[in-house]
Amino acid sequence: MPPFNVHTVLIVSAILFVLGLVGVLTRKNVIFMLISVEIMLNAAGLAFVAAGARWQQPDGQVMFLFILAMAAAEVSIGLALVLQIYHQNRSLDVGNITALKDEPLHEEV
Amino acid sequence: MNLLFYISSFVAVAATILAITRFHPVHALLYLVVSFLAAALIFLSLGSPFIAVMEVIVYAGAIIVLFIFVVMMLNLGKDTALQEKNWLRPKVWIGPSLLVLILLVEMIVLLLTAEDTAMHVTVVDPRNVSLALFGEYIIALELAGFLLMAGIVGAAHIGKQKKKQLHRFLQAEVMESV
């Protein structure tokens, strides 16, 4: 088994991030989109921890702790919004959330 | 340590692929737990045991439990899985996946052409992390506390069950349409 390099860790983190991005882009259910956002945040944290481990400094781990706090706040707000969306629309389809959609402009002349 | 890193990163990627392709929300969440535990093992092999513990407690513990509570409250079951199966056709996912795959290949090529160094894993213990956290990062720590407070208040306010209230423009529209 070869010793692993810095780039190997970064490639793993990039693959995880891309998987989360594909999940956000292809899913239509709000809960699955939130799950994919969590995957992306975790991958970004992995890159931070890898950079911190490369220089043997604690800064990368500190950044991961901040990402953790941000992810916790984000997911609580997001799930509260999911509950409200379900109560208003009876569905979790992002295509149904059109309350802010503008009406098509009337063709004049 | 090397073997630990390779095995756990393989498990992490496989579990993440399974998590984003499941139709049933609970199955996706269970694979997500496996993915987070594998990520915790990656952190352990990178020499940061404190982060590994935090990953297990906060991500695999708290955040997943929040998701499971919401799935239970909304009673998402077989109907949701069927709907997801209808939505997730190859025609839908193949375009974004291919484009994102191109970006990933570019990133990997850029990483591989740059100068590489071997990882010297030395354990950075929680003592050093907390010295940095409460020393030079104290302002950021307090701001994170503000953020969590705002998150709690915001979630309590948004999640409150209240009567459906429409904006006054929408109310006028509803009046007209009736």
CATH architecture of the domain at 29-92 in chain A, please? Orthogonal Bundle
In DSSP terms, counting alpha (H) and pi (I) runs of 4 or more, how many helices of chain A?
3
As a percent range, the share of helical residues of chain B equals over 70%
The number of helical elements of chain B comes to 8
According to CATH, what is the class of the domain at 29-92 in chain A? Mainly Alpha
Query: What does the overall shape of chain A look like?
Result: elongated
Tell me how many strands of chain B there are: 0
Mean pLDDT of chain A: 88
The structure class of chain B reads: mainly alpha
The shape of chain B is extended
Q: Give helix and strand order of chain A, one letter per element, not per position.
A: HHH
Interface with most residues = A-B, 71 and 85 residues
At the third CATH level, what is the topology name of the domain at 29-92 in chain A? Helix Hairpins
Uncertain residue ranges of chain A: none
Structural class of chain A comes to mainly alpha
Would you give an account of this structure?
The complex is a heterodimer of chains A (109) and B (178). Chain A has 109 residues and is an all-alpha fold. Chain A has a domain at 29-92: Orthogonal Bundle (Helix Hairpins). Chain A has helices at residues 6-26, 30-54, 59-89. In chain A, α2 runs antiparallel to α3 (59-89). The longest helix of chain A is centred in the C-terminal third of the chain and has 31 residues, at 59-89. Chain B has 8 helices and no strands. In chain B, α1 packs antiparallel against α2 (25-45) and α2 packs antiparallel against α3. The termini of chain B are far apart. The model of chain B has no long low-confidence stretch (mean pLDDT 88).
